[in-house]
Amino acid sequence: MRSSEPISWPVRPLIAGVIVAAMLVAGSPAAAQVTRLEITGRDPVANGQVFGDVGAYEVIRGRAHGELDPRDRRNRIIQDVELAPRNARGCVEYVATFALMKPVDMTRASGVLVYSVVNRGNGAPSPGPEGHVSLVSGWQGDVIPTNNNQTIQVPLARRADGTPVTGPVLARFWDLPPGTRTEAIRIGSLGTAFYPAASDSSAATLTYHTAETVTGEKTGTGTVARGDWAFADCRTTPFPGTPDPSRLCLKDGFEAGRVYELVYTAKDPLVLGIGLAATRDIVAFFRHALADSLGTSNPVARSITHAVALGTSQSGNLIKTFIHLGFNEDLTGRIVWDGVFPYIAARQTPLNFRFAAPGGAGTLYEPGSEPVLWWGRYTDATRGRRTASLLDRCTATRTCPKVIEAFGSTEFWNLRMSPGLVGTDAVSDIPLPANVRRYYMPGTTHGGGAGGFERAQKPNNRCALPQNPNPMADTMRALTVALVEWVVKNIPPPPSRYPTIAERTLVQATRAATGFPSIPGVDFPDNLVNAVLEYDFGSTFDYDDMSGVIARQPPAIMKVLPTLVPRVNLDGNEIAGVASVLHQAPLGTYLGWNLQAVGFFKGQLCGFVGGYVPFAATRTERLDAADPRLSLEERYGSQEGYMCVVTRAAERLVRERLLLREDAERVVKLAASTRVLPPSAEATPDARKIAEALCR
C-alpha cells in the first residue's frame, strides 16, 4: 500500500458504545458503511464571497474511515476482496479523503448533492448560486497522495497463509530522452500504477520493436539479453546499479526509435475495486446518515434530497463501471445517484481486476473496451458474448439513474467510442433506453478547446496541426442544468442528438466514407483511427465485467473490430450532433484527430489532441493555395455578416436548452470584440451582398 499515512491491518476493535452510536445512522446500523468521519479542516470559500441568494460557502475536508463486509452480495464482485485482511468484525477497511463544499446556511441549499468523480486523484468541489452541495472523494487506490489530491488507502491482497499473490504485468517504454539508462516502471500509459516484481524475476523478459501499427503489428523485434538490464537505479551508480524494484536500468541505455516491453511476475496487488464500494458508501453517508458510529455529525444531515454524479474522461468511465457492476445500490437497497453525467467517457475504467492500472488510457494492450459498453441491450456475438447492458444490474435492483452522456470527435478517433453506439459488429444503431440521453459535440478535441473567435491558433509542438479551439464547456454546463432539472423536477432534457448509421452520419474511418476533402497540407491516412481490438487476456479474465485475473501479458490480438467515425461536410467539419456556436460559424476545419509530428509514433494519432485548419481569409488567398473550402470573405462577407451567423446560432441553442442565456451573451460579446473580417463599410460590393443576405 502506498500512502503517507498507512492503515494498520486490522484496526483495533471500536470502543464500547459503537452499537448505540451506530443507531444515529439513518436506516439501520449497517447503512453506508462509513464508520468514522474524521474532519481535518473547515474553511470559508473565497474569503466568504457571497454566491447569489445562497450566500457564503464553506469547505470541509477530512477522511472517511469505512469497512466492507466481503460476504455482502453487493461487495462480492470486488476482485480479491476475499484475500484482503479483515478486522475483528470480519470486515475489510479503507480510508478515503474527501472535500465537501456547502452553503454556510443550509436552509438555503438546493437539496442536491453533486458528486464530482476525481480524475486520477485530481478535482475539487465547487460553489455556485444554485445552492448545491458539492462533494469529491478518493477512489483510486494507486494514486500517490499530495497536499491537494483525493486518495484512498486500500489493502493488498494476500493468500490465507500470508504468501504474496502474484501475476504477470506489462510495462511499455518509448520516446525517452536521449541518454536515458534508468526509467521508472509504470503499468499503463498514464497514471502511477506500479507493482513490485516477485522475489524470483529470472523469467522476466525485455523485448523491443522498431515499428508498430495502430492494430498492433510489429516489425524490427528483438530481445534484450537478461544480463543487459536489471530492476535497478543506474542514475548515479554504473550498471547493474543499485537494486530498485520500481525502476528499469539498461546497460547500454534506451535506444531512440524503439518501443520496449517489460513483462514480469509482480506481487502484492492492491484491492482497487474497493474504491467503487467506498464511493457508494461515502455518497450514501452524506446523503442519508445523521452521524457516524462515534457520534460525529454529518454536516449535511437531513439536507439532501437528490444526488447526481459528474465525471470527465477517466472519471466518466468510472461512472459507467460503477453502474455496470451494481454499485448504484447502497447497502440498504436505496439508489445512490439519481442522475449521472459521464462526459467524454468512451470506455470503462480498468479498475476491478488483479494488477489493474486504472490511470491508463486507450493505447495498445490496455483494457477498457472489453466489457459491456452500451446502455441498451445488445448481443455481442462478434466476441462470443451474452446479451447485456450497462443497466442490467441496476434494473434488477430498481436503482438505475437518469443518464446524460456527452462526448466529441476525439472519443471516436482516439478512444474507441464506436461500440457504445453500434456494438462490436457496427451493423446497426443500439437504441437508447428511456432513462438515457446522448449528445454529440462535433469537431471537438478531448475535453474541448478554449473557444474564442481567433482565426489563428497556437501550434502544438508534438502534433502536425494547430490546436483545435472548438469548445465543449458551454454545452456541458447547459446539459448539467438539464440533468438536475430532470432529476429534481422530472423535466425531460432536450432530445438526444448524435451520429447514427441509420442517418448515414456514422461511417467507416476512411477518406472516401467520411467525405473528407483534399485540404492542402493535411494528410488523412485510411489507417488513422485507434481501432477496437479484441484481446485474449486468458481464461481467468471476466471480459463482460472487466474483472478477474489477467493470465496473459501481453495479450494476443484476436481480431480488429469495425470502428466507425462521424461523417463530414465539404469543409471537413462533422455534421451531426449539438454544434457549438463556433462550429456553426466556423473559421476553419475542426478535427477530433491530429497527427504525431515527432517521435516513435510519427504519422499516427497525436494523443487525445484535435487539430485545426483555418479557412483562407479571402477568395484570392484560397485560390492561390488551391484550397477547396470557401474563404471567410466568401462565407460571411463582412464582420456584420459573421455576427449575424453567430447571434442566430447562439439564440437557436438557447431555445433548444443547449446553451445557457448567460453563456450565449458572453459568446456573442466575445465574437463582436474579435475582428474576423473587415466591417461592411470596408468590404467589397460582393462581400457586402453576402453579409446582407446572411442578416435578412
Please supply descriptive tags for the structure shown above.
696 residues; alpha+beta; 11-stranded mixed β-sheet; 14 helices; disordered N terminus
Beta strand %: 15-25%
Unreliable segments (pLDDT under 50, ≥5 consecutive)? Answer: 1-31
Gap between N and C termini, in Å? 67 Å
Q: Kindly report the average pLDDT value.
A: 94
Care to count the β-strands? 32
The largest β sheet comes out as:
11 strands, mixed
Overall form: globular
Q: Please state the CA-atom Rg, rounded to the nearest Å.
A: 27 Å
In DSSP terms, counting alpha (H) and pi (I) runs of 4 or more, how many helices? 14
Explain this structure to me?
The protein has 696 residues and is an alpha+beta fold. It is built from 14 helices and 32 strands. Strands 1, 2, 3, 4, 5, 6, 7, 19, 20, 23 and 24 form an eleven-stranded mixed sheet that branches. Strands 8-18-10-13 form a four-stranded antiparallel sheet, with no helix packed on it. The protein has a three-stranded antiparallel sheet with strand order 9-17-14, with no helix packed on it. β19, α3 and β20 form a beta-alpha-beta unit. α12 runs antiparallel to α13. The longest helix is centred in the C-terminal third of the chain and has 17 residues. The radius of gyration is 27 Å and the shape is globular.
